[in-house]
Structures are given as structure tokens and as C-alpha cells.
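Dear colleagues,

As part of the handover before I leave the project, I'm documenting each prediction I ran so the next person doesn't have to rerun anything. This entry is a single chain, and its sequence is reproduced below.
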Amino acid sequence: MDGGAVLTIVSAPPTAGSAPAGPEVERVVTGYLDHLVVERGLAVNTISSYRRDLRRYTEFLAAAGVRELGEVAESDVAGFLTALRQGDDAHPPLSATSAARAVVAVRGLHRFALLDGLVPDDVAAEVRPPAPARRLPKAIPVESVEALIAAAGSVEGPRGLRDRALLELLYGTGARISEAVGLAVDDVDPRSAAVRLAGKGGKERVVPVGSYAVRAVEEYLVRARPALAEAARRGAGGALFLNSRGGALTRQSAWAILRACAERAGGVGGISASSISPHTLRHSFATHLLDGGADVRVVQELLGHASVTTTQVYTLVTVERLREVYATSHPRALR
């Protein structure tokens, strides 16, 4: 070959069925994180979480011999999820919530690569994040409810009568706090022992009221509400429960009352201000009814649930209670 000749090197064409080399995983991850910062404007903490999760994903793929995103298969993504849940010597097992966050980051990475034309398929699309464990409603024992109500009535004057009536009504009807504070005086009928509640979407329902709640409300109406109404500058209106200024009690104020009663109850039956929520008495109402043998569809109507499926979560609570009783009572239950 003389010095003026030009040497041309022609690469061999890819063999049939082979896929073109894809971009390196690390480079796509960097591009994706830059996209989240610049284009999506995600918070710093969110970006840090994504970076941490995707670094672990990159390490997982590298350990499996996968370094280019085009080589990743759906089984690799599913295997990563399994590894997250099982843990290893360097990582503890992740909860369903934490593993789901990592899978969301990985799915976002692969979708980003697909939309940018870096890969021909989104291999992560069918890998679903694990569903978080279903949280059962927190109900408290009957003796704890009684301690809460007693703590409400321990305050002298109109406020104690109001607080006791509020808690008796919440537990006696299963009303949401928003429904209770939205009651008008005319919504409660002591003679028929019933209350008319305005639920979600303005749907009304009539719920029976037990004798304890009826007496507490009657006592509040006679001995406390007139005194509270006197503080109102423009008249108290028709709201059943009033605050110290004569206005309608708010949902936030009702929650504060519940927490204060929990503090005064002194931890009876596991009660604490931190463990009490606006739905505590509602959950306890439903659970205690089912424990007492009430039909789930009756409880559905009382709670104002549109679907019985929503109410059936309480049956899980009672099954757990049955297991506890069985384990402590049956002579051959212990393992």
C-alpha cells in the first residue's frame, strides 16, 4: 500500500436479531435527575430520595452484569423490587412504602428513556409498586371511651357540659366531627332519640341516639348552651355546639377538645393525646357495634358509607379481636 492510499475501515453490520447498544445506565440516570430538577422542579428532598434509589438500582444492575439501559429486561426490574423487600448484607429490607417509592423512581427513569428515544420499550411499565399495608382503623376499648367522656365532664361549668355532650354524641352516633359541629339545635330530637346528620355530598341520614347521649345533650341545652349563647355579639344562631364566644364550634376546636380530654384521662386504656384522632370515636362506634353482633350493612347505614366495602374494613378489626381472645382463652391455642 503506497503512502497516498486512504485506509477505510468498515464495521461489520450487526448480526440478525441483535439489539443496538443502549446508553449507559449511569448517564441516563444523570439526565433523568437533571430533567426532574430543571423541567419538573421537584423539591430537593425528593431529588435526594430519587438519587439514592436510582444509585441502588444502578448497583443492582451492575451486579447482574447489566450496564446499558437497552439491556434491561422486565425481570431485572421485578428482581430489583424483590431485592428491596428482602434486603441483603448491606441493606435492610424495605417496607412496602419505601420499596414503592424506589420502584416509582425506576419506572420514571425508564419512561423518561423511552420518551427521549433512548430505548425502544418501557420494560418497567408492568412492574407495579407494592401496595402499602392496609391500616386498620384505630378503635379504643369501651372503658377508654368511658374514661374520655368522664374526663370531658370533669370540667366545671358550661364548657364541661358541652364537651361531654359532644363526645357522647360522637360515640353514640358514629358521626364525623364535621357532621357533629355542623348540627343545628333542631337536628336533634330527644323525644324520638334520633339525630339528622348531613354527610359527605350533602347526603342526609337519620341515626338513632342512645340514652346516655340524649341525656347529655338535653343537659347541655338546658344548663350550658344559653350561657354560651350570651357571649355572642350578633346572636348565636341555630348551631347546636357553641364556643366560648357564642359562635359555632369548629372542627379544629372539637379536635382540641378531644385531645384535652385524652390528656385529662391520664392514659386510661392506652389513651393519649397523640393516639387520638378526629375519627377515634367513630371507629370505636363501628367496631363496638360489630363486636356486639350488629350486621355490617346496618353499620354501613349508620356511618353513611356509600359502599359496604368501606365498612368491611371494620370487620378486619373484629377478626383480630377474635384471634386475641382465642389465643388467650383456648387451652390448645398456644404454640
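The two ends are 88 Å apart (CA to CA). Residues 44-63 form the longest helix (20 residues).

All the best with the project,
I.
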